[in-house]
Amino acid sequence: MTPRLDMIGLVVSDMAASLAFYRRLGLDVPAGADDQPHVEGTAPGGLRIGWDTEETIRSFDPTWTRPTGDSRRELAFLCDSPAEVDALYAELTAAGAPGHLKPWDAFWGQRYAVVLDPDGCGVSLFAPSAPAT
Hints:
Number of helices: 3
Order of helices and strands: EHEEHEHEEE
Structural class: alpha/beta
Number of strands: 7
Shape: globular
Radius of gyration: 16 Å
CATH superfamily of the largest domain: 2,3-Dihydroxybiphenyl 1,2-Dioxygenase, domain 1
CATH class of the largest domain: Alpha Beta
CATH architecture of the largest domain: Roll
Distance between the termini: 38 Å
Helix content: 10-25%
Strand order of the largest sheet: 4-7-6-5
């Protein structure tokens, strides 16, 4: 059997805030899960996303500590259009998500923006700048 990427796991300090943020991005997160120590949702295409509280992680790894200054992790969400990148960035920042990079037309041919989730992880929003020909 060849291993396949099946789930991305996020360690969160505030489950309710994190789930609310990712629901705004369209992830199918179970209702009523905001106070659970572990939650899983499925993205379009079948990739699972899991959220664990810091306490859950410490329950089986007592040496775990919250990372600081970590910008190596980032999730990226493909949007339908450049206008959707702009609108979603505006919606998320209006709801309190810190904007990291305002929408711009990137030299690699995408409309691109970055917001931070409640734990400071970068979340890219992008769409092709021009329709494919």
